[in-house]
């Protein structure tokens, strides 16, 4: 993701012929990962890249554009977003609820269901499992009996190592290949309905967006 977002920053500068320049920082260099939307909303930062599920506290509907269980396939999501009114609805949701203007920047394919240090072979095995989740998956996993909680991506592996959590759901095998997730867990479970596709967003403070010609 870092390489992708850095590429987007370069493209923005290229396509605006240098009129817009972007300096990219990693969370938490400037702000904690979970506070990024609020920080851009308040104008302390101009622009951010993040997953839509991280704005769930401000706008629950935004999670529908993230890796919602049983959601659309990547192709279906792209068709709905660009041809079926999804883009306009998303912009209205985030401008109204969070005062940021969103841009779909990257699309992920299906994700790993759970990385875990406990065997999960039945629904009953989820009961009491302390796990990291995000967005609507917190609600789903809680209903299935897990003790689900949100934490930023950078805290997952250390908390798995320390035993603070037993399991985590986070991104695809490709995305997590450098995180060490598979080195600190015993099991990786794949399920096609966990997360069929999701957008990563670029989002701009709405006042700055409105200043553009």
UniProtKB/TrEMBL annotation:
<dbReference type="InterPro" id="IPR038404">
    <property type="entry name" value="TRAP_DctP_sf"/>
</dbReference>
<dbReference type="Pfam" id="PF03480">
    <property type="entry name" value="DctP"/>
</dbReference>
<keyword id="KW-0732">Signal</keyword>
<dbReference type="GO" id="GO:0055085">
    <property type="term" value="P:transmembrane transport"/>
</dbReference>
<protein>
    <submittedName>
        <fullName>Uncharacterized protein</fullName>
    </submittedName>
</protein>
<dbReference type="InterPro" id="IPR018389">
    <property type="entry name" value="DctP_fam"/>
</dbReference>
